TrEMBL record:
Lineage: Bacteria, Bacillati, Bacillota, Bacilli, Bacillales
Keywords for the protein's UniProt record, in alphabetical order: Oxidoreductase
Protein name: SDR family oxidoreductase
InterPro entries in alphabetical order: NAD(P)-bd_dom_sf (IPR036291), Sc_DH/Rdtase_CS (IPR020904), SDR_fam (IPR002347)
Keyword Oxidoreductase: yes
Length: 252
């Protein structure tokens, strides 16, 4: 098994890509901390992992909350003794709101989850990784973090921030045995759309302009396989990279 003996924290792991990543990591031998806002659904993921012989615990946490992030990582270490892998998956959309219609509240809320959240979890994990001279961070960015209009202004900017943060951490900590990479998924069948409420007509129209060339939507399990590769020793020479998984959508 490719992650045997490893301890992994996965945020936003109650559904979609996070759930698929948690389940695959557990199947590959990792002890998984399933973190999500929704404790009940996180517990259901844990139950499914345990039914298949895996090891996991659920921790309710909001990555936009500093105290929750501290408790999340502390709980992982208290329960399993260490931390080896951090997957920053939690994210929200922005109703396709363009720059002219942005409110401070929307901008700050999207950045709090999508960009500040990964910074906080990474900041908390790095002392653990630097002490043991090993550790892996996998950030779930987005095709929207490589392009200009896959969503609204706040989401797009937040995912560009994740890409820049990934590259910075990957390079700066490379000599300490730590790797940090990101995945840039295209359209994937998840429930992130539940964070979309009354999308902005202008912003959605502009974002949809490129949807006609999208070959297909992906499945969460397809992204999980990329995350497994990046988290495993198979990717030992991959660092500071952004792996696009979008069926060729952004290749055009």
């Amino acid at each position: 098994m490719r992650l045997s003996g490893k301890v992994a924290v996965v945020t936003g792991a109650a559904s979609g890509m996070g759930k698929a990543i948690a389940e695959l990591f557990a199947a590959e031998g990792a002890k998984v901390v399933v973190s999500d806002l929704r404790e009940e659904t996180a517990q259901a993921v844990v139950a499914g992992i345990e039914e298949k012989g895996g090891a996991a615990i659920a921790v309710a946490a909001n990555v936009a909350n500093e105290e929750d992030v501290q408790r999340l990582i502390d709980t992982a270490v208290e329960r399993y003794g260490t931390l080896d892998i951090l997957v920053n998956n939690a994210g929200i959309m922005d109703n396709f709101v363009p720059a002219a219609d942005l409110t401070n509240e929307l901008w700050e809320r999207v950045f709090a989850v999508n960009a500040t959240g990964p910074m906080r979890t990474t900041r908390k994990a790095l002392p653990i990784f630097t002490e043991k001279k090993s550790g892996v961070i996998v950030n779930i960015a987005s095709a929207g973090g490589l392009n200009g209009s896959r969503a609204g202004a706040a989401y797009t900017a937040s995912k560009h921030a994740v890409v820049g943060f990934t590259k910075n951490v990957g390079f700066q900590y490379a000599n300490l045995g730590i790797r940090c990479n990101a995945i840039a998924p295209g359209g994937v069948s998840t429930n992130i759309s539940t964070s979309i409420n009354a999308p902005n007509p202008f912003g959605m129209e502009r974002a949809m302009a490129g949807m006609g060339i999208n070959p297909r939507a992906g499945e969460p399990e397809e992204i999980a396989k990329v995350a497994l590769f990046l988290a495993s020793d198979d990717a030992s020479f991959v660092n500071g990279a952004v792996v696009t998984a979008d069926a060729g959508w952004t290749a055009y």
